[in-house]
Amino acid sequence: MFAYLVRRLLLMLVTLIGISIVIFFLLRIVPGNIVDILFAAAGYVDPADKVDLEKQLGIDQPLVVQYLHWIGGLLHGDLGYSYVSEKPALQEILPRIPITARLAGLALLFSASIGIPLGVISAVKQGSRIDYALRVVSLSGLSLPSFWLGLLVLTASVAMFGQMPIFNPNPQSLGEAFATYCIPAMVVGFRSSALTMRITRSSMLEVLRQDYIRTARAKGASDAAVNYHHALKNAILPVITVIGIEAAFLIGGLIVTETVFNIPGVARFLVEAIRWRDYPIVQNLVMLIAVVVVSANFIVDMLYAVFDPRIRYTD
Amino acid sequence: MAAIDFDVELRRAGAHATGGWRRVLFLAQRHVLGAAGLTIMAVFVLTAIFADFIARYDPLTVDAAHALARPSLAHWMGTDSFGRDVFSRIIHGARISLAVGIGSTALGGTIGVIVGLTSGYLSGWVDLIFQRVSDILQALPLLVLALIMTAALGPSLPNVILAIAIPLIPTVSRVTRANTLALREQPFVEAAKSIGMSEVRIALRHVLPNTLAPLIVLATAQLGSTILTEASLSFLGLGIPEPYPSWGRMLSESAAEYVRTAPWLVIFPGIAISLAVFGANLFGDALRDILDPRQRG
Amino acid sequence: MADTSDLVLDVKNLKTVFFTNSGLFKAVDDVSFTVKRGETLAIVGESGCGKSVTALSLMRLVSDPPGRIVGGSIMLEGTDLLALDEAAMRKIRGNRISMIFQEPMTSLNPVIRIGDQIVEAVRLHRNLSTKEARNIAVEMLHLVRIPEPARRAREYPHQLSGGMRQRAMIAMALACRPALLIADEPTTALDVTIQAQILALILDLQKELGTGLVLITHDLGVVAQTAQRVIVMYAGRKVEEASVEALFAAPKHPYTRGLMASIPAVPAPGIAAQERLNEIPGTVPSLVRLPKGCAFAPRCKLAVKRCEAEYPPLADWGGGHLAACWRAADVAEVA
Q1: What pLDDT is recorded for position B162?
Q2: In Å, how far is A130's CA from the nearest CA of chain C?
Q3: Do residue C317 and residue C209 come from a single domain?
Q4: pLDDT at B276 over 90
Q5: Which of A18, A47, A79 is at the close of a domain?
Q6: Contact (CB<8Å) C109/A221
Q7: Is the Cβ pair C61, A230 closer than 8 Å?
Q8: Closest partner residue to C111 among A217, A219, A234, by Cβ?
Q9: Do C100 and C177 share a structural domain?
Q10: Residues of C227-238 as b/e, b for ≥16 C-beta within 10 angstroms?
Q11: A29 and A119: one domain?
Q12: Residue numbers of the domain that contains C37
């Protein structure tokens, strides 16, 4: 178990370092840095000013030095300064995290509480009208772009209340909290609940084909006991892994949904920073996302070991 | 015991459906949804091919006099803020979605297959490196990676295709690699080796064809997701640049302003995206049921 | 025939078919047999001959679709199982009739403790508290000679060896003292050394509990050691039925003879030891497109015109020795 953990953590570290290298150099392979963008607006450029600014931002140094400087800072909790606001990147990013985390948590809750039961029903009633209907609904759920769903919600809101929900980070009333967090979370969670449902269904169908299900029937167990005691206990395990997959899936949904609803979370901040070529923000945000995804997968594997008596990470 | 109509039961099981067309017809009846998906995709492809004949206006022509016109007989889906005909733009938008969908799936798929075959076949350190690179690419959400790629490469159609193709590579290569590893142990591969066939020839002649079914299933499943990613990228303003009529671009952030004043600008492009992706997903699902019986639902 | 009051199982004209996309698949075609209290009936045949489907039909566990029991009757202790509704059938499954499967590795639920799986079987049919049922579970594990039964009851299937798991399966199947036990190739998946132990255990418990046993196997050696009576199945039909002694002394069907000849060192008189094993040429025909006549005719050395034209009826050759073969009288001479 211990050896496995060490191996696993080392692999995570390798992956994270790899991501940092890929992101850092990818962002800098194109000509046109922040200085060009800033000066483009001004029209006339004094070459001396430009060199000055480049020096000030540290982008006159070789890329490798810049990279090592960034990583070195990361280890000390120094994420550098935003090119745009000139504030420490950490100060820019930190306050946005709880907003996105709240949305993501709600969306995940929504996705699991809708997706898992519907997936089970769909599998148990395989081939029935209910199964058919649920499959069509889940597939259409996967086909609707989150941002369009968000826009439709806004359109509906305008049609019904004559106004759009305006984001308030500290909602005063229950209604406001609902508009601020729950509606966007549902928009994001709709897609992932469709994914959860499909994975639960196929996992459940796989289990229902197993020999031990036949054994349970041979004992005289009822359909309910077979489906919910024998099958679900096994089928739920792969569904747990979905939480890991969905961490990545959710972030995609959050990026567009925060943009649609104008929510000042980290996901929308990433898009803004990319547009502004605000490298310190972009690279740190991408690292944050990578850490979240990688740790989500790690936690899922550990959960697996807790729930499945067969798995003991020994090697 | 209730009387059993053997003929009815056998028809239900598909025993009458032998031979080419009867089999196809039977499969279409059995997989109504898949047939519907195929039809949607066919309409979508035909629209893209014959866009010039279907569209009633030039998708790029600006007509300020008729900006933000409501849907009418002249403009079925209204016009946008530049007075461009929304219907014509949606028809032409099919080309972009199709190009991105097919282009990036084919590109990512081909590279993925090559990487997967090499990785599964050579093993050793080549495999190890490919695996770690896959880990890296898969640790980032598809949209994030595609965003960074288009930001780095600049917004243009080929760059969008590339940006969406690259995140597909690890998914495809992992499936190919797993199949290759399993197939390498198969007797017919051993047999081919024993009669002195070269490794490359074995990989291409024996291993690849046998991993094809799961790859086709995977590719169809990815088609919808690539179309959706392009739409998201363009929506965020980092995909297909103006003035080209990408469905996602038509919905770009400014759409939030038109929610109040011109909802047709929001509704129609979204329907186009959803329908195209839905068609691809329906077809992909049915194809998986038919080609991959183990996964059958 | 035997005293009918002693009959545990009386199967008449059982017919189970599968509706597949290549046509109607007659997996069990007009098969009849009986089992007496404490008796062992072996069903023998090659894989695909319908013996496992016969077993699942007795439990009414043939999956529908594609399979369906379309005819006959299955009388268990005087009740026709085919006339029962699903709820009534559930009360009988695992209670009056139980089954042990071929694969002990996959037949136990991997995430439920062994003891709890037996407790479930007990509590489904007996009105007992969990504690009482747990005591019975441990008792059953002791009965199947699992050492430290109380500790093993708390373990998960993966912690047990294949042989141990099959013992646990037997404990579960016998927990409610069924009148009939069906064992579908119970030792095939086990190591040779374990096979004999498990067989001996089943027979011991059968004797102790007076259970009727249907043993499904492809191994005539096992049959010789365990069964009182044998039915031989080929392509979904019963082609021969006899007492073990009569069958081994003088098989009446060329297929049975072929099976015996293809097994090394059959411990039966009347067959000369051979240097080389005789195999039966060809394979079992597709159950979808069966020939009009005898299904074995294409592989049979004795086949004549009539065999291909007409299906032979089951004829009694004395003492309940039944065989369905036009050339039954000549089987002993040739070979």
Answers
A1: 93
A2: 18
A3: no
A4: yes
A5: A79
A6: no
A7: no
A8: A234
A9: yes
A10: bebbbbbbbbbb
A11: no
A12: 4-227
Range of lowest pLDDT (A289-298, B107-116, B179-188, C208-217): B179-188
Residues A167 and A30 in one domain: no
Query: Tokens 């508009």 map to which residue?
Result: A179
Decide the pairing of beta strands C315-316 and C212-217: unpaired
Residue A43's pLDDT is: 62
The residues, any chain, with a CB within 8 Å of residue B28's CB and separated by 6 or more, are B34, B35
A204 and A176 share a domain? yes
d(CA B38, CA B24): 13
Is 50 exceeded by the pLDDT of residue A134? yes
In a domain, C283, yes or no: yes
Q: How many residues does chain B have?
A: 297
Q: Are residues A34 and A164 in the same domain?
A: no
The shortest CB-CB distance from C23 to any of B1, B4, B10 is to: B10
Q: Are residues C85 and C25 in the same domain?
A: yes
Q: Is B253 exposed, middle or buried (0-12, 13-18, 19+ CB in 10 A)?
A: middle
**For residue C206, what is the domain's CATH number?**
3.40.50.300
Residues recorded for chain A: 315
pLDDT over 70 at C266, yes or no? no
Statement to judge: residues A25 and A103 lie in one domain:
no
**B281 at interface of A, judged by CB pairs closer than 8 A:** yes
Question: H helices then E strands: how many in chain A?
Answer: 15, 0
Q: Which chains touch A (3 or more CB pairs under 8 A)?
A: B, C
Phi-psi region for residue A220, left (φ > 0), alpha (ψ -120 to 50) or beta?
A: left
Number of domains making up chain A: 2
Do A111 and A34 fall into the same domain?
Answer: no
- Residue A207 within any structural domain of the chain: yes
- CA within 13 Å, CB half, B68: 9
Interchain proximity C21–B9, CB inside 8 Å: no
Report the interhelical angle of A279-307 vs A266-276 (nearest 10°): 150
Helices (H), C235-304: 244-249, 254-261
Q: Given strand C7-20, what is the order of strands in its sheet? A: C23-36, C7-20, C67-76, C79-80
Whole-structure pTM over 0.90, yes or no?
no
Residue with tokens 């995430």: C111
- Residue type present at position C147: P
For A73, the domain range is: 2-79
Domain-embedded: residue C158: yes
- C-beta of residue B4 within 8 angstroms of C-beta of residue C67: no
Q: Are residues C32 and C152 in the same domain?
A: yes
Residue A59: CB atoms within 10 A of its CB come to 16
Q: Look at C169 and A215 and tell me if their CB atoms are within 8 Å.
A: yes
- Spatial distance between the Cα atoms of B54 and B50, rounded to a whole number of angstroms: 6
Q: Which of B227, B207, B205, B254 has its CA nearest to residue B101?
A: B227
Q: How far is B155 from chain C, CA to nearest CA, in Å? A: 51
Q: Please state whether B170 falls in left (phi above 0), alpha (psi between -120 and 50) or beta.
A: alpha
* Residues C22 and C153 placed together within one structural domain of the fold: yes
- A254 and A279 part of one domain: yes
Q: Answer for the pair B241, B155: CB distance below 8 angstroms, yes or no.
A: yes
The one-letter amino acid at A61? Q
Same domain, C217 and C312: no
3-class DSSP state of C146: coil
A255 found inside a domain: yes
- Domain count of the fold of chain C: 2
In 3-state terms chain B splits into helix, strand, coil percentages (rounded to 5) of 75, 0, 25
pLDDT digits (tens, 9 = 90+) for A165-189: 777 777 777 777 777 888 899 999 9
As a whole number of angstroms, the distance between CA A35 and CA B180 comes to: 49
The partner residue sitting opposite B15, judged by closest CB among C20, C82, C83, is C20
Query: What is the Cα–Cα distance from A13 to C256, expressed in whole angstroms?
Result: 66
Q: Is the bond leading into A145 cis (omega within 30 degrees of zero)?
A: no
